[in-house]
């Protein structure tokens, strides 16, 4: 009986979500509609339509035009649309940010996003001092062995992080963090410090540092990184360039709709 009740509850929830989407589509098509009209379109009682509208209104997705007036799409939808548009524009917007930062730092700059357990580089620019011609754009790199990956992991909730690390971690070099407890402690430091660094953890002789890029509601959507040879990108220099990197990431985050409070 409990299984049947659970199934009925799930079905009811799915139906409510479906009806809520129908309400938004209706208002997008008509511009504005009253409860009676909405109930008629959905084929439900006015009280059901009223409850749906109340929930949508509480999230800013619809608004009532005057007391007991008709309903229209709310500005909360604009925020959600901005988030989707921002994600699609991230690679395009990121090219300019990467180029400007690469020119300032003289190093290779990348933007990476998390995808199916790895970090994928979606934009890159090389500075005047960069000695490698390797193009990382489109390359899949391990989350646990890169500065970008650490930033992305540190921003995940426990369930997502566990899912992305639920496998044997490959030791790319002798410096790669493969112990779960050591990596978790490192990610806690990343979250606290606001940046991540890697010292020869993916390739010998290469250091890197990354900072988060945030979306409209403050969620980490990508990582902005700078990498270079260990003799030039020392631990001291990494601490020095964190600030301009963070400023660049904030500017890009603002273009995506995020404004720090």
From TrEMBL:
Keyword DNA-binding (UniProt): yes
Keywords tagged on the record: DNA-binding, Glycerol metabolism, Transcription, Transcription regulation
Keyword check for Transcription: yes
GO molecular function, a single term: DNA binding
GO biological process: glycerol metabolic process; negative regulation of DNA-templated transcription
InterPro entries, sorted: GAF-like_dom_sf, HTH_MetabolicPath_Reg, Tscrpt_reg_IclR_C, Tscrpt_reg_IclR_N, WH-like_DNA-bd_sf, WH_DNA-bd_sf
Lineage top rank: taxon: Bacteria
Ranges for domain IclR-ED: 76-258
Pfam families found in the cross-reference section: HTH_IclR, IclR_C
SUPFAM superfamilies, sorted: GAF domain-like, Winged helix' DNA-binding domain
Residues in HTH iclR-type domain copies: 14-75
Function text: May be an activator protein for the gylABX operon.
Protein name: Glycerol operon regulatory protein
Organism of this sequence: Amycolatopsis jiangsuensis
């Amino acid at each position: 009986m409990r299984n049947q009740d659970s199934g009925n509850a799930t079905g009811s929830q799915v139906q409510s979500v479906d009806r809520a989407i129908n309400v938004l589509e209706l208002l997008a098509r008509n511009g504005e509609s009253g409860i009676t009209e909405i109930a008629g379109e959905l084929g439900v009682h006015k009280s059901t339509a009223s409850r749906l509208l109340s929930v949508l209104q509480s999230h800013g997705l619809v608004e009532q035009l005057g007391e007991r007036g008709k309903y229209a799409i709310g500005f909360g939808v604009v925020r959600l649309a901005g988030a989707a548009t921002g994600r699609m524009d991230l690679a395009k917007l990121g090219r300019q940010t990467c180029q400007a930062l690469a020119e300032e730092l003289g190093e290779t700059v990348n933007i990476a996003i998390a995808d199916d357990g790895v970090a994928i580089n979606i934009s890159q620019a090389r500075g005047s001092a960069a000695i490698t011609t390797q193009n990382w754009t489109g390359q899949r790199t391990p989350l646990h062995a890169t500065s970008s990956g650490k930033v992305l992991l540190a921003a995940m909730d426990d369930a997502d992080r566990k899912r992305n690390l639920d496998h044997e971690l490959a030791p790319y070099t002798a410096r790669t963090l493969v112990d779960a407890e050591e990596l978790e402690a490192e990610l806690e430091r990343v979250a606290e410090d606001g940046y991540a660094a890697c010292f020869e953890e993916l390739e010998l002789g290469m250091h890197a540092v990354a900072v988060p890029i945030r979306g409209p509601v403050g969620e980490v959507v990508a990582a902005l990184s700078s990498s270079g040879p260990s003799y030039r990108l020392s631990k001291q220099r990494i601490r020095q360039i964190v600030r301009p990197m963070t400023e660049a990431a904030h500017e890009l985050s603002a273009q995506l709709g995020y404004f720090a409070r």
